Amino acid sequence: MARFNRLRSEILDYVSTNPNCTASEIVAALANERRMKNHGLTPRKVGFFIPRHCKEILWTQDRATGKRIYAVTS
Fold first, then answer.
1. Which residues, 6 or more positions from 45, have their beta carbon under 8 angstroms from its beta carbon?
2. What pTM does this model have?
3. DSSP string for 7-68
4. What are the residues whose beta carbons fall under 8 Å from the beta carbon of 39, sequence distance 6 or more?
5. Per-residue confidence (pLDDT) for residue 39, from 0 to 100
6. Are 41 and 25 in contact (CB under 8 A)?
7. Options 1.10.10, 3.40.50, 1.10.3470, 2.160.20; which CATH number does 2-72 get?
8. What per-residue confidence (pLDDT) applies to 40?
9. pLDDT in tens, 18-65
């Protein structure tokens, strides 16, 4: 449960400070800057995690690349 809560809070913090980011950017920042390498994070896992557990974050799809772009609701 502690790992779940930390992951949720770290994702919310990152997306609120860096709006319009992709799941791969979130994973790179958490794994390298915030030392969550041992959590086994992948962009796919983060992409599934956000809609289920982070209701404050909305996503839109980038038309050029087809990637989801995440931003915190205001």
1. none
2. 0.89
3. HHHHHHHHHHHS-SB-HHHHHHIIIIIS--GGG---HHHHHHHHHHH-TTEEEEE-TTT--E
4. 3, 7, 30, 31
5. 76
6. no
7. 1.10.10
8. 83
9. 999 999 999 999 988 888 777 788 999 999 999 999 999 999 999 999
